[in-house]
Design goal:
Elements (H helix, E strand, L loop, with lengths): L1 E6 L2 E3 L5 E9 L3 E10 L6 E6 L5 E3 L7 E6 L4 E6 L8 E10 L6 E5 L3 E5 L2
Parallel strand pairs: 2-11
Antiparallel strand pairs: 1-3, 3-8, 4-5, 4-9, 5-6, 7-8, 9-10, 9-11
């Protein structure tokens, strides 16, 4: 019903930058919150940043001032610009989108396949 395609992960040195992109497609009536989560080895998945359909944003404290989330509602895409990357940012990053699909009667979460971000010298 809803497909998410992520891109932009990779290997970067500390202090470097990466930009993650996630595009939603499929049969849905509306997109609500769009966000990025990450999961490091041995740790629980955590919310990194999200943005509402109205444009409000929310960040985990550890990335404030370094990461910026944005969305293009016309293209159903969400971006995560990551600057000043640190080794502790190393994780698999997942895009999550809340979509209103006919028949569900509510916003339902859909997840991307994940993209690896590795910060290392």
């Amino acid at each position: 019903q809803v497909q998410l395609v992520e891109s932009g992960g990779g290997l970067v040195q500390p202090g470097g930058s990466l930009r993650l992109s996630c595009a939603a497609s499929g049969s849905f009536l509306s997109i609500g919150d769009m966000g990025w989560f990450r999961q490091a080895p041995g740790k629980q998945r955590e919310l990194v940043a999200d943005t509402s359909s109205g444009g409000s944003t929310n960040y985990v404290d550890s990335v404030k001032g370094r990461f910026t989330i944005s969305r293009d509602n016309a293209k159903n895409t969400v971006l995560l610009q990551m600057n000043g990357l640190k080794p502790e940012d190393t994780a698999v990053y997942y895009c999550r989108v809340l979509a209103w699909v006919v028949g569900n009667g509510k916003f339902t979460p859909y997840w991307g396949q994940g993209t690896q971000v590795t910060v290392s010298s």
